[in-house]
Amino acid sequence: VAPDAKEFMPAATKYVNELWGSLTCTLSVDPDTASKYSDVYEKMLDDLHFGCVSVNQWSGFAPLYSELPWGAYPGAHTDRDIQSGEGHIGNSYCIKKPIKALIRAPFTSPAAAKVPVNRTAARTQAERVVDFLLHRNAYRLTKLIFHSLTGM
């Protein structure tokens, strides 16, 4: 067990880089820790061998940003041990040989989508999606977005 973030970050980086796969990783880092240990924090972000490193935001959102490259960390896998694959999709800015995408969000993101946590919320979300798909208009889109952001 690391006594503080300064020792934890490099140890955690080493550990997760040895796990199977290199597609994404998500970190939760409060602003005080990021500021207090900024050198160690930035080195950790640089040293993580993942195609997408996401701070305080679910890395599953990365493919929604067409500007970002989305794929495995370059050179992490071979044809015999393909794991997360090779190459990237996305990258609408056409950056040559991208290494990774980095997403940073506030520690408490006010715009984070709410994941339905019970049957009623999931059903309401599904109904709003279907309603919008059947009747594409601003009103139904607004209802869908409102429910996605608030859970109401």
Tell me about this structure.
This protein is an alpha/beta fold and 152 residues long. It folds into 2 domains: 5-104, no CATH class; 119-150. Helices cover 38% and strands 12% of the residues. The protein has 5 helices and 5 strands. The chain has helices spanning 5-17, 31-36, 38-47, 119-134, 138-150; strands spanning 24-27, 52-55, 69-71, 88-90, 101-104. The strands form 2 sheets. It has a 3-stranded parallel beta sheet with strand order 1-2-5, with no helix packed on it. A two-stranded antiparallel ribbon has the order 3-4. Helix 1 (5-17) packs parallel to helix 3 and helix 4 (119-134) runs antiparallel to helix 5 (138-150). The longest helix has 16 residues, at 119-134. The radius of gyration is 19 Å and the shape is globular. The mean pLDDT is 88. This is Aldehyde dehydrogenase domain-containing protein. It comes from Coccolithus braarudii.
Name some characteristics of this structure.
5 helices, three-stranded parallel sheet, 152 residues
List the helices and strands and how they pair.
Elements: H1 5-17, E1 24-27, H2 31-36, H3 38-47, E2 52-55, E3 69-71, E4 88-90, E5 101-104, H4 119-134, H5 138-150
Organism: Coccolithus braarudii
Protein name: Aldehyde dehydrogenase domain-containing protein
Summary of the model, kept short:
The protein has five helices and five strands, in the order H-E-H-H-E-E-E-E-H-H.
Strand order of the largest sheet: 1-2-5
User: What class would the helix/strand composition place it in?
Assistant: alpha/beta
Fraction in helix: 25-40%
* Main sheet record: 3 strands, parallel
Number of domains: 2
Report strand %.
Answer: 5-15%
Query: How many strands in all?
Result: 5
What Rg is obtained from the alpha carbons, in whole angstroms? 19 Å
**Envelope shape:** globular
Number of helices: 5
Distance between the termini: 41 Å
Sketch the topology as an H/E string, one letter per element.
HEHHEEEEHH
Indicate the mean pLDDT.
88
Low-confidence stretches: none
Organism: Coccolithus braarudii
Protein name: Aldehyde dehydrogenase domain-containing protein
